[in-house]
Amino acid sequence: MSNKVSSEIINHLKAIVGEQKVLLGDDDLQTFGKDWTRIYTPDPSVIVLPKTVEQVQAIVKLANAEGFGIVPSGGRTGLSGGAVATNGEVVIAFDAMNEIRDLSVVDQSVVCQAGVITEQLQNYAEEHQLFYPVDFASSGSSQIGGNIATNAGGIKVIRYGMTRDWVLGLKVVTGSGEILELNHGLLKNNAGYDLRQLFIGAEGTLGLIVEATIRLTRQPHNLSVLVLGVEHFSSIMNVLHAFQSKIDLTAFEFFSEKALQKVVDHQDLQRPFDSVCDYYALIEFESLTEQELEHAMSLFEHCMEEGWVVDGVISQSLQQAQNLWRLREDISETLARWTPYKNDLSVSVSRIPEFIGEVDELVQAGYPDFEIVWFGHIGDGNAHLNILRPDETPMADFVAQCEAVSKQIFEIVQRYNGSVSAEHGVGLVKKPYLKYTRSAVEIEYMKSVKKVFDPQNVMNPGKVFDL
């Protein structure tokens, strides 16, 4: 497969989408050719912004005929390098395919094009007294197609599940250029294989998601937020069990003191309380009645009496709840200035304390001069390890030092039967480590599936695994 496409191919692309929708400027190539990883040097040939499914299909058929690779680009908020074009590929950006239509309040569903921004869908649902619960810090810029392609998780998984739990149907263009309508928005359909699930989380390696039927639900009401400080990580699990056994939680997050310090220093926020603790738990729940709120407060007092919790605060207003959430949600944005090396890890919820303890001991020994910041979705077993790059350390040296220890981290993940990528995908970053989560047999089956849908390997080539 050639690196850069020819001027003749570029002219074909212009004929498909129009000259104004084919971008060749250096700034555009840099912007659309990468995601948030910042590790790889983007080198796409051209950026194409289709408006219709038929245009996407025509581009894919051209790729098969001419032998060039395609990299799909959504909101470019990914953290695994899955949307990075490093080898002269044609980038298909879905920014122009951003329509929402066909709302059904009876079915509680809506049809979205791939380029719909997550927050756009959330606001649309709210306008119709409904709720789209998949949420994360990048909801203001991430796109639905990218969320589906990576099976995005976020802060509400403990109550609402992952993105795949909200996808009723998909329209996709396969790697060979065929258009498939998958599941037709049905809640129940046991007629053979559910091919929709193959495309969810496939990171664009089987084909391009162009449209999705998304399930919605009722809006939550009177959400209250608790932030609790704990001295020992194992105490967080005691708190989780105490609350989860009595209350239907909508979120249960955690972050370290170092994470809190960074956010408070750089986001003009206040600490939740005066006590300084090693870790903090953020708990969200619906308090529909005064009795439910009192019940939550009695659980808080129980945790204090047991010595699990040192201090805590509960929101008294919507604004306070939003500010408490920012202590957790603003962490990624805050840490971006250090270009952190991220590890997105998961194990069974019950094994989180011993797992984090073992990994923390390893990274502290391996990176004695680097700051280590932990946060994550503890209620679903997902922990984010962030190693901050010192200003004086060149990026290449920093990545090399981090990768030297990553193998040992993933060996721990493997012993715990965990995942090297809980919600950010594999892309380029995690490709060398896929074997620590998937067996050799599984990987061979994945490759076989790709060859069925993308026989010429034009779809996001080189991502997840090498053929």
UniProtKB/TrEMBL annotation:
Its EC number is 1.-.-.-. Pfam families: FAD-oxidase_C, FAD_binding_4. Its cofactor is FAD. One of its GO terms (molecular function) is oxidoreductase activity. Keywords: FAD, Flavoprotein, Oxidoreductase. SUPFAM superfamilies: FAD-binding/transporter-associated domain-like, FAD-linked oxidases, C-terminal domain. Residues 40-219 form the FAD-binding PCMH-type domain. Belongs to the FAD-binding oxidoreductase/transferase type 4 family. This is FAD-linked oxidoreductase.
